[in-house]
Amino acid sequence: MSNAFRDLLRKVGSGNHTKEDLTRTEAAAATRMMLLREATPAQIGAFLIAHRIKRPTGAELAGMLDVYDELGPKLQPIGSSTPVMVLGIPYDGRDRTAPISPLTALLLTAAGQAMIMHGSDRMPTKYGVPLVEIWQGLGVDWTELSLDQTQQVFENTGLGFVYLPQHFPLAQKIFEYRDQIGKRPPFATMELMWCPYAGAAQIVAGYVHPPTEHMFQVALSLRGTNNFTTVKGLEGSCDLPRERTNIIGLSTPDITDESGLVAIDRLHLSSRDYGFSSHNVPCDPTEHLVADMRSVLQGKPSEMMQSAIWNGGFYLWRAGICADISAGITQAEAMFASGEVAQQLTRIIQAIESIQVRDRSYSQL
Fold first, then answer.
1. Boundaries of each Glycosyl transferase family 3 N-terminal domain copy (predicted)?
2. Shared-domain flag, residues 133 and 22
């Protein structure tokens, strides 16, 4: 048993009147001890549920991110003229609305904007469809790639996926505790801001509850991250809904607010203002979702196509590729219709196959 960890556990788990927030340094120490298994299973489980009940602070989340930055994997910088866009999406997947982000990633990388995604398999507490299953259905299997192989795909195509079971097993083991306690611990909030990239990046973090955005703002400001976007998206993802007004936060790197934090410009977007209907695509079985995505890649009109264009238009603008959202929507529609996005998927599949064939050949020498 770790006595040092017990002291930190006592602070967060002492009840409504005597509980204390951890400092950034203390949160980092607790995270490190959990990831390295210096704390016992009983201590880890108790900390995760106590910390959820207490609710995390931005400083605590910054400390957690410090340790992920220290112990976690990183894709190395590539020759990108713009910051790489890193999508922070809940690891426990989707079960009500269709994920759009794979189509967004294909569109943006086809347009020259490098992107990184990260995640795992079906996991607690939702056990919704994870991104890796969608990618596998599209013919892209990130789960078998080493970090070095993923780096090569990233360099060749502009798209990378950090897969926790393969690339960050220390963090993957924590999910066993999530299943047992039956609730998302603050780790689930921290992961939305995690940046497994060693170069200049723009963090895009999805969320559900408004207080989470302020925690993002505090944590990222403390860590010196001033290029980020917050999205009150579908099921806490970065996917823009169509049935309600989108609430989006755009960081202003050179401006701080009255608290000294990186300031956020508020943007409210309604899909209706851009000619879209108020309809989100439901989360069908994975094979149906993949079939719908393939239809989009073939340029066929559908509700998923409308969501893909809506999301693509926004992110093309946010990446600086298009002058405004209307221009982004026009470009997204044209790229799906012309087959450019489908060609990008083919390039990624071919890049993975080429790397795997080459590495198998080397191993046989």
1. 6-70
2. no
Q: Could you give the CA distance from residue 337 to residue 51 in angstroms, rounded to a whole number?
A: 48
Inside any domain, residue 322: yes
Residue 189 φ/ψ, nearest 5 degrees: -75, -45
Select from 86, 8, 65, 12 the least CA-distant residue to 222. Answer: 65
Q: Does any domain span residue 363?
A: no
Catalogue the long-range contacts made by 339-346 (C-beta closer than 8 Å, 24 or more residues apart).
339/297, 339/298, 339/299, 340/110, 341/103, 341/106, 341/107, 341/110, 341/296, 341/297, 342/297, 342/298, 343/110, 344/106, 344/107, 344/109, 344/110, 344/157, 345/106, 345/138, 345/139, 345/140, 345/297
Q: Residue 283: give the domain boundaries.
A: 80-356
Could you tell me if 49 and 107 lie in one domain?
no
Task: Check whether residue 109 and residue 216 sit in a common domain.
Answer: yes
Q: Based on the domain organization, do 243 and 291 belong to the same domain? A: yes
What's the rounded Cα separation, in Å, for the pair 125 and 103? 25
Phi-psi group of 37: left, alpha or beta (phi > 0 → left; psi -120 to 50 → alpha; rest → beta): left
- Give the span between the Cα atoms of 206 and 189, in whole angstroms: 9
pTM of the model: 0.96
Local confidence pLDDT in tens for the 365 residues of the chain = 689 999 999 999 887 778 899 999 999 999 999 999 999 999 999 999 999 999 999 999 999 999 999 999 999 999 888 999 999 999 999 999 999 999 999 999 999 999 999 999 999 999 999 999 999 999 999 999 999 999 999 999 999 999 999 999 999 999 999 989 999 999 999 999 999 999 999 999 999 999 999 999 999 999 999 999 999 999 999 999 999 999 999 999 989 999 999 999 999 999 999 999 999 999 999 999 999 999 999 999 999 999 999 999 999 999 999 999 999 999 999 999 999 999 999 999 999 999 999 888 776 66
- What CATH number does the domain containing 136 carry? 3.40.1030.10
Q: Verify that 135 and 29 share a domain, yes or no.
A: no
- Answer yes or no: is 143 within a domain: yes
Q: Are residues 175 and 288 in the same domain?
A: yes
